[in-house]
């Protein structure tokens, strides 16, 4: 049994597992996407954000 | 996308222009059935509308050209880029400039000390800043108003109790509230910077009244605010040399932040939106191709009716 068939039989065949797969993948996708964009934003603005300069002012 | 564009171009380049095709296109036009009078009427209306638009544009341009005002040059700010955040060290220095120079005349009613937390100051520092001023609170149990040290939730203190008092103290000129000034002026932070560094002697023929100064960037040229920023007008706590242009740059950045506190989040959100929507675009294009594939691979045959 190939990979596609396995995926089909386990996930896509039933609506219940399909819906569950949608919710789970949305959760993980959102987390990764947020992390990636936030890291990219901080890399672009290295040294300018409060996060990068706050150590100078905290005791 | 490239494939379909190429396909369209190739088909267009290979096809020889048939005269019947042109006839067919022209027969699609609905204006052929119009009467001459209707054509003339619609033509006149179109010309009048176009002429009015051109006249309005010309009037607008000429008004701008005749203004006694110098438009500020565009500067490259560290936050000018599509994804560039504000320089928070500069915003912090700008707060110092506001507090020591601008706050003597200008209010900032819409910014509270809590807004500084996590942007320019730590919570302890912001609390210390707030406690420096006395705020009118009350009434207490005796029904009397009393003064107390400021809290994080307090807004920046205003130098004058109301607009009339501000006018009375400044020769009738009202120092505007600076909270949203960058969004409220043409040219934004470029204008603020140019105005603060652009003071010069009035040219011959310009008459200034008592208490007025000449600034070419101010509409009309006569401004009631004296030049406020000079080299070494104050000292920065972080040791940055306090030249007049440095002070002007920092206060402009600070005012940009007060006018658009959501600036950094907005640019981060733009990045996320571009990412998500390009992903959705790709999916949409794929689905479109899939759904159209049956339609596009279909052959249509025309069979004339046999007699």
TrEMBL record, chain A:
SUPFAM superfamilies with a match to the protein in the record: Subunit X (non-heme 7 kDa protein) of cytochrome bc1 complex (Ubiquinol-cytochrome c reductase) (SSF81514)
Pfam families: UCR_UQCRX_QCR9
Primary residence: mitochondrion
Annotated membrane topology: Single-pass membrane protein
Keywords in alphabetical order: Electron transport, Membrane, Mitochondrion, Mitochondrion inner membrane, Respiratory chain, Transmembrane, Transmembrane helix, Transport
Protein's cellular compartments: Mitochondrion inner membrane
GO biological process: mitochondrial electron transport, ubiquinol to cytochrome c
Cellular component GO terms, alphabetical: mitochondrial inner membrane; respiratory chain complex III
Binding partners and assembly: Component of the ubiquinol-cytochrome c oxidoreductase (cytochrome b-c1 complex, complex III, CIII), a multisubunit enzyme composed of 3 respiratory subunits cytochrome b, cytochrome c1 and Rieske protein, 2 core protein subunits, and additional low-molecular weight protein subunits.
Family: Belongs to the UQCR10/QCR9 family.
Function: Component of the ubiquinol-cytochrome c oxidoreductase, a multisubunit transmembrane complex that is part of the mitochondrial electron transport chain which drives oxidative phosphorylation. The complex plays an important role in the uptake of multiple carbon sources present in different host niches.
Protein name, UniProt field: Complex III subunit 9
Organism from which the protein derives: Acanthoscelides obtectus
Automatic annotation (TrEMBL), chain B:
Signal peptide span: none
Domain Cytochrome c residue range list: 89-259
Keywords per UniProt: Electron transport, Heme, Iron, Membrane, Metal-binding, Mitochondrion, Mitochondrion inner membrane, Respiratory chain, Transmembrane, Transmembrane helix, Transport
GO-annotated biological processes: mitochondrial electron transport, ubiquinol to cytochrome c
GO terms under cellular component: mitochondrial inner membrane
Molecular-function GO terms, alphabetical: electron transfer activity; heme binding; metal ion binding
Cofactor binding, note field: Binds 1 heme c group covalently per subunit.
Binding positions for heme c per the UniProt entry: 102, 105-106, 225
Membrane-traversing stretches: 40-59, 269-287
Obligatory cofactor(s): heme c
Locations listed in the record: Mitochondrion inner membrane
Top-level taxonomic group: Eukaryota
PANTHER family, A to Z: CYTOCHROME C1, CYTOCHROME C1, HEME PROTEIN, MITOCHONDRIAL
Subunit and interaction comment: Component of the ubiquinol-cytochrome c oxidoreductase (cytochrome b-c1 complex, complex III, CIII), a multisubunit enzyme composed of 11 subunits. The complex is composed of 3 respiratory subunits cytochrome b, cytochrome c1 and Rieske protein UQCRFS1, 2 core protein subunits UQCRC1/QCR1 and UQCRC2/QCR2, and 6 low-molecular weight protein subunits UQCRH/QCR6, UQCRB/QCR7, UQCRQ/QCR8, UQCR10/QCR9, UQCR11/QCR10 and subunit 9, the cleavage product of Rieske protein UQCRFS1.
Function: Electron carrier protein. The oxidized form of the cytochrome c heme group can accept an electron from the heme group of the cytochrome c1 subunit of cytochrome reductase. Cytochrome c then transfers this electron to the cytochrome oxidase complex, the final protein carrier in the mitochondrial electron-transport chain.
Family affiliation: Belongs to the cytochrome c family.
UniProt protein name: Cytochrome c1, heme protein, mitochondrial
Organism of provenance: Acanthoscelides obtectus
């Amino acid at each position: 049994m190939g990979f596609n068939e396995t995926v089909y039989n386990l996930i896509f065949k039933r609506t219940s597992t399909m819906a569950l797969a949608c919710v789970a993948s949305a959760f993980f996708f959102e987390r990764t996407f947020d992390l990636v964009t936030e890291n990219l934003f901080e890399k672009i603005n290295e040294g300018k954000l409060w996060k990068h300069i706050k150590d100078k002012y905290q005791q | 996308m490239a494939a379909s564009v190429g396909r369209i171009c190739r088909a267009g380049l290979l096809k020889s222009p048939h005269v019947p095709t042109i006839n067919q296109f022209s027969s699609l036009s609905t204006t052929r059935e119009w009467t001459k009078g209707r054509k003339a009427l619609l033509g006149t209306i179109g010309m009048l509308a176009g002429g009015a638009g051109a006249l309005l544009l010309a009037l607008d341009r000429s008004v701008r050209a005749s203004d006694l005002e110098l438009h500020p040059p565009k500067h490259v700010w560290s936050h000018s880029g599509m994804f560039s955040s504000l320089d928070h060290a500069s915003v912090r220095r700008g707060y110092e400039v506001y507090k020591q120079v601008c706050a003597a005349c200008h209010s900032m009613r819409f910014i509270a000390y809590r807004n500084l937390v996590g942007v320019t100051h730590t919570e302890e520092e912001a609390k210390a800043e707030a406690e420096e001023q006395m705020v009118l609170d009350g009434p207490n149990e005796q029904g009397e108003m009393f003064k107390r040290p400021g809290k994080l939730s307090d807004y920046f203190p205003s130098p004058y109790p109301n607009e009339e008092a501000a006018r009375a103290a400044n020769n009738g000129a009202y120092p505007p509230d600076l909270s949203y000034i960058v969004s409220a002026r043409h040219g934004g932070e470029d204008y603020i910077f140019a105005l603060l560094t652009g003071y010069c002697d009035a040219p011959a023929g310009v008459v200034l009244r008592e208490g007025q100064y000449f600034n070419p960037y101010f509409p009309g040229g006569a401004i009631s605010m004296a030049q406020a920023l000079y080299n070494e007008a104050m000292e920065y706590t972080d040791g940055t040399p306090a030249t007049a242009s440095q002070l002007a740059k920092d206060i402009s950045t600070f005012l940009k932040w007060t006018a658009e506190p959501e600036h950094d989040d907005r640019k981060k959100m733009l990045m996320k939106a571009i990412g998500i929507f390009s992903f959705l675009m790709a999916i949409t294009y794929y689905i479109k191709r899939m759904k159209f594939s049956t339609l596009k691979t279909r052959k249509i045959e025309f069979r004339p009716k046999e007699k």
